[in-house]
Write a structure and sequence with these properties.
The protein is mainly beta. The protein has a domain at about 280-325. Helix content is about 5%, strand content about 35%. The strands form 9 sheets. The protein has a 5-stranded mixed sheet with strand order 14-15-16-17-23. The chain has a 4-stranded antiparallel sheet with strand order 1-35-34-33, with no helix packed on it. A hairpin with a 4-residue loop joins strand 30 and strand 31 (about 425-430). It is globular and about 75 Å long. The protein starts with 5 loop residues before the first helix and ends with a strand.
Length: about 475
């Protein structure tokens, strides 16, 4: 049931737009600084195989989103067992080149993930791609390999999902996993490691960083993870400030407006405020379930096999530190948080502006467009919030597109695009409630987030990349 706050919406609609600038085109996951917003005009609302189609190019399977230069598009894919980077011409969709990455291993994946999930990043002269089954690789515009950096193996429960980002002369990549999580920065020119910072609190994360430049200060890398959102120094990877109170699993990318950041995290249904179970301390568990050698086997715990993510190192034995993480994970809360940017050290008590806990997404990132904060959860419930106060403006399912949602929403030209798993592309007007303007149907699964640039919408489905735009 929709519950719009009419008076508040009128105020919001009267306020000036605060859309993100579009200086870099769409060169990384979710475009300019991960915002999901393009300043493009003349972007069509209605499109499909027979309408406003500029071109369609068949592609092998992959979850990575398009990264654009002025005249090229980069994607990654899995062609059978081969991991490939694909370069297309933007004007025609013609495949210009395809390059295969080494694949010395095949890591376990959640059914919603794939071996080509991270999105490429490009500086307009080169492209940088990450495959969890190998590591980082850079190519020039003609497909010549510049360097490669093996990384891993990784032990992320769901498979790796974070994408690389570029800042100054660095490629920055989060590698959150069950154990041994880290953030790494390498030189764009040669792939040599500049610094590597451990993230011991982080487990099973998929968030891609954004950048923040404080007034008069140096640009910082902002990365959500288990329990914490952390700001890192570009020069050496040192922690600058952090905020507690996040979920134990973070998959979304933050968005920023002014001095405030918005980030959503969802762990499980048991992480709703007030629903968290009480978990006994490890000493009590040890007394009740330890064997003759004092070890606690995961399989011996009640419902232990269903809690396989307690055993982070996968050895079948639950240690005190693993149990402490489990207790902290179950005590954490699902939520959308509004966080004031900046500071030093732990700024939780001063910088958390508000929290919202209902129908929070696990996978899709939020969208802040024309002074309204949007989120769509995996089950298809859309919520709109006032970014200043966290007040709920509306909540409901999208008529004609009740489905699962894994791609993140994007916006341009006064249009908000939300893409369902089975290929429905819903277009909303900003600030006007949740009644779709149109529901387009591409009749193919969608997991990748679209790109928008120069009046064109680029949508990747399971089997193809589409370019939509007005004729002429």
């Amino acid at each position: 049931m929709l519950r719009p706050a009419a008076a508040l919406l009128l105020l919001l609609l009267a306020a000036p737009a605060a859309d993100a600038p579009d200086p870099e085109g769409w060169s990384r996951f979710r475009g300019p600084n991960g915002s999901g917003i393009s300043t493009s005009s003349r972007v069509p609302a209605e499109f499909g195989p027979e309408k406003n189609l500029v071109w369609k190019t068949p592609l092998p399977f992959g979850h990575s989103s398009p990264a654009l230069t002025r005249d090229r598009i980069f994607l990654t894919a899995a062609r059978a067992e081969r991991l490939v980077t694909i370069c297309l011409e933007r004007r025609t969709g013609k495949v210009l080149w395809e390059r295969e990455a080494p694949r010395a291993r095949t890591e376990k994946l959640d059914s919603r993930n794939g071996p080509a999930a991270p999105t490429p990043a490009t500086d307009g002269a080169n492209v940088y791609v990450f495959f969890a089954d190998f590591g980082l690789i850079s190519y020039d515009m003609d497909g010549r390999e510049r360097w490669r950096l093996p990384l891993g193996p990784f032990n992320n429960l769901y498979g790796m999902g974070a994408s690389p980002v570029l800042v100054r002369d660095l490629v920055v990549l989060p590698c959150d996993q069950n154990t041994g999580s880290f953030l790494i920065a390498v030189n764009q020119d040669d792939g040599r490691v500049r610094w590597r910072t451990a993230r011991p609190e982080a487990h099973s994360g998929h968030s891609t960083p954004i950048l923040y430049t404080p007034p008069g200060g140096a640009t910082q890398i902002i990365l959500p993870g288990s329990f914490l959102l952390t700001a890192y120094a570009i020069e050496n990877g040192d922690k600058i400030w952090w905020v507690r109170g996040l979920s134990f699993e973070l998959k979304s990318t933050p968005v920023v407006s002014g001095d405030t950041l918005f980030i959503n995290g969802f762990g499980s249904a048991e992480n709703q405020p007030g629903a968290q179970p009480t978990i006994a301390p490890f000493e009590e568990i040890r007394k009740q379930y330890a064997d003759a050698h004092g070890k606690v086997a995961l399989a011996d715990l009640p419902n232990g096999k269903a809690r396989f993510w307690i055993d982070l190192d996968g050895d079948g034995v639950v240690s005190a530190s693993e149990w402490d993480y489990y207790r902290a994970a179950m005590a954490s809360e699902n939520g959308m948080l509004a966080i004031r940017l900046g500071g030093r050290g732990d700024v939780t008590d001063t910088n958390v502006r508000w929290k919202y806990h209902k129908a929070v997404p696990q996978l899709p990132s939020p969208l802040l467009y024309r002074n309204v904060l949007y989120m769509v959860n995996d089950g298809g419930i859309v919520t709109t919030l006032h970014p200043e106060t966290g007040a709920e403006l509306g909540q409901g399912r999208l008529k004609g597109a009740i489905d699962h949602y894994y791609a993140s929403p994007v916006a341009a030209d006064g249009k908000i695009f939300m893409l369902s798993e089975t290929g429905k592309v819903v277009v909303l007007e900003p600030g006007s409630g949740l009644e779709p303007v149109v529901v387009n149907n591409l009749d193919d699964d969608i997991y990748a987030t679209p790109a928008i640039s120069d009046g064109k919408l680029y949508v990747r489905t399971r089997g193809a990349l589409y370019c939509f735009g007005f004729p002429g």
